[in-house]
Design a protein that fits this description.
It is a multi-pass membrane protein. This protein is α/β, with parallel strands linked by helices. Helices cover about 50% and strands about 15% of the residues. The chain has 14 helices and 13 strands. The protein has helices at about 10-40, 65-80, 95-105, 120, 145-155, 160-180, 185-190, 195-210, 220-255, 275-285, 295-305, 315-325, 350-365, 365-375; strands at about 45-50, 55-60, 65, 90-95, 110, 125, 130-140, 270-275, 290, 310-315, 330, 335-340, 345. The chain starts with 8 loop residues before the first helix and ends in a 5-residue tail after the last helix.
Amino acid sequence: MIVLCRRCRPLTCSYGSWCLFAACIVLVTSVACGDDETDAIPDKLVVATRDVPPFSMKNEDGQWTGLTIDLLREIKVRMRGSDAAALELEFREMGLDEMLDALERGEIDLAAAALTVNAEREARVDFTHPYYSSGLGIAVGRQQLRTWDAVLAAIFSLTFLKLMLALFAALLASGVIVYLFERKRNPEQFGGRAAKGIAAGIWWAAVTMTTVGYGDKVPKTSAGRVVGFIWMFAGLFIIASFTAAVTSALTVNQLKSRINGPADLSRVRVATVTASTSDRYLADRHVIARTHSDVHSALQSLKAGDVDAVVYDAPVLRYEAHQRFAGEVHVLPMTFQRQDYAFALRENSPLREQINQIVLRRIENPEWDDVLAGYFGEDVE
């Protein structure tokens, strides 16, 4: 079938040679591609991370653990399979800005922490697919939730003390005037030593102003009764004004102490973490905030009463509030400004596609919900 005549043989041999040559090229190319894919995974990955519980945290032995770190170790196993032990993960603790700078300079291979994906960071580095989505949250001190704290704060405020002094001055003035008019003509009720008579006058002024009117002290002179008549109507005005002032002071104090959402942040003292997405969020909305190196120190300032609220990633705030600040800090139930967490890589990193596939397969697995529940409990979003 192959050789029909002598004229056909050269053509047939030439065709077979070309087929053999093409097959060799395909084989060599396949081997080369396979070698490149293997070489894309180095023997060591330099990983930047930081203390952001429960995503990344250092235990007592100095080992890094947490949701993000555990996922990275699983990625390592799936990338290398049975040879996973040959792939070393070298962790370096860095701040947020340091991580991005190190990636741009090529000093590290990836960053693994609660790193939020945003346009500004994407312009500098590459991100994998997100493995967790949440939002920003607001932590407040427990005193923000107690109405009695607001009441006590108002009672011991300078405004309230001024009101009390003004009221006592009015009672004293009225009591002294009645005493001066009544001490000789009505010694049974306002007589005796000056201190005793003035005290009786103050008592009469107080019961008259409050409309109680026990009747145990009654002016008998004409001048004393005129003073009593004027004091009755003056007392109504004083009581009304005093009640309004106290109510206003309590209301203002409660308004200042109550924080219900982002709209309330502009009128309270706020803390956040330096260079974080929450820091940028507050700056964009012209909210002045005190910045801290980490969320733990920010919450410490909240506990100490130096600030009224801490704005940061909601899952981190909830974990810290439950584990380290139980009973001292409360995280509001609402979240805002969506946050997607992902691994950050160098631009055009050959690791990106492999990590993306592993991350997607992992988070699509129903067991991922159990992993999240192990870290966040009922706070899983």
